[in-house]
């Protein structure tokens, strides 16, 4: 039975980078540029992570293998407003369809709500299951434009969720 745990664990960074690389290459044609960008951003975040506010949420199985991740970055120096940046949300293929994405999101939004923080994320058009999940948790599409910041031209989107008390 899989469960959600909080906090970095050995192998978490490798899981996040590897799953992003495999999934987005296989389904969307993303390449080394994207995987390197994920790795660089994750390394930068991990080096400055504030345990009092930032969060690693991981889905793990009974053998403690990581099946999914969702990171809340509340200390991003590029986001001075203090909003939470939802990042690196991914599930392994074997974990999809078990409700783990819903549980990861519920834990993350619970943390945002406890701190009365708004939350935002970037994604792109075509990830319909993810979009439905975001919208169920109160996110709204704020803006959308064609761009290639991940090394492939896609319709990039920014979703935002207002602070809850």
Topology as a string of helices (H) and strands (E): EHHEEEHEHEE
Please summarize the sheet with the most strands: 7 strands, mixed
Class inferred from helices and paired strands:
alpha+beta
Q: Number of DSSP helices?
A: 4
How much helicity do the residues have? 25-40%
* SS elements, strand count: 7
Shape designation: globular
Low-confidence blocks of residues: none
Report strand order across the widest sheet. Answer: 1-2-3-4-5-7-6
What's the mean pLDDT score?
A: 93
Range of strand content: 25-35%
CA distance, first residue to last residue: 32 Å
Structure summarized in a few sentences:
With 165 residues, the chain is of the alpha+beta class. The chain has 4 helices and 7 strands. A 7-stranded mixed beta sheet has the order 1-2-3-4-5-7-6, with helices on both faces.
3D structure, described in words:
With 165 residues, this protein is of the alpha+beta class. The chain has four helices and seven strands. Strands 1-2-3-4-5-7-6 form a seven-stranded mixed beta sheet, with helices on both faces. The chain starts with a strand and ends with a strand.
List the topology elements.
Layout: E1 3-6, H1 12-28, H2 32-48, E2 55-60, E3 66-73, E4 84-91, H3 100-114, E5 119-124, H4 128-136, E6 140-147, E7 154-161
Parallel strand pairs: 4-5
Antiparallel strand pairs: 1-2, 2-3, 3-4, 5-7, 6-7
Helix pairs in contact: 1-2
